[in-house]
Design brief:
four-stranded antiparallel beta sheet; 4 strands; 2 domains; globular; Muramoyl-pentapeptide Carboxypeptidase, domain 2
């Protein structure tokens, strides 16, 4: 599904890049430990990172997507032509934005985080 979606975007002049895909629970723990070492509190970390065992990335279905000329994993991605294209077209390929603004899980808005669900 990802390869088909990326090809369709390219045909429309949009370059989609994967920043992150599958990640194990062990690696998720490493991410959290690094943030703790940088002085963030666990509450701050859990606002933007899932606890080990709870990330959609563990399933292998989640992708963090970026595009050239926009900072990876930043809200500014929502201003990109790539994000506009994903909003219009991603569902055709089975992808949905996991954490829109005001999502029911109260997880921080992540315009780059898309998860595949059967279309």
């Amino acid at each position: 599904a990802w390869l088909r979606m990326r090809s369709a975007a390219a045909a429309d002049g949009i370059e989609l890049q994967v920043v992150s895909a599958f990640r194990s629970a062990a690696y998720q723990l490493v991410i959290i430990e690094r943030k703790l070492e940088r002085g963030l509190s666990m509450d701050e970390i859990l606002q933007v990172s899932a606890a080990p065992g709870f990330s959609e990335h563990h399933s292998g279905r989640a992708l963090d997507i970026s595009t050239p000329d926009y900072a990876a994993l930043e809200e500014e991605f929502e201003d990109s032509p790539a994000f506009a294209w994903l909003q219009r077209e991603a569902r055709r390929y089975g992808y949905a934005l996991s954490y829109p603004r005001g999502n029911r899980h109260a997880i921080a808005y992540e315009p780059w985080h898309w998860c595949w669900h059967r279309p």
